[in-house]
Amino acid sequence: MQLASFTGFLRTLFIIISFYYIFRFLAKLFLPVVIKKVVEKASENMQQQQRGQYQNNWQRTTDGETSIYNTDNARKSRETKKVGDYVDYEEID
């Protein structure tokens, strides 16, 4: 059975604390840059989705660049699903 020495314990404790402070220092330097990149990428993806939805609703004709609003989705009536008949139950004494 081996026993841990006091100097070995202090050395391990020093290494753990130094890694903690080095990690904090590096996080303060690089984390804002990483977060900025993530937010920019998310914003870019959102704009692409909005452009895609906008382009799906508007069509361009080749003669004169006239914009025509696509109303196919608006004209479709929404059908309600009939699940079944309503049955009213009464209690029997």
From TrEMBL:
Chain intervals for the UniProt region annotation (Disordered): 46-93
Membrane spanning stretches: 6-27
Recorded superkingdom: Bacteria
Sorted UniProt keywords: Membrane, Transmembrane, Transmembrane helix
Biased composition (Polar residues): 60-72
Low complexity composition-biased segments: 46-59
Basic and acidic residues composition bias: residue spans: 73-85
Pfam families: DUF4834
Record-given protein name: DUF4834 family protein
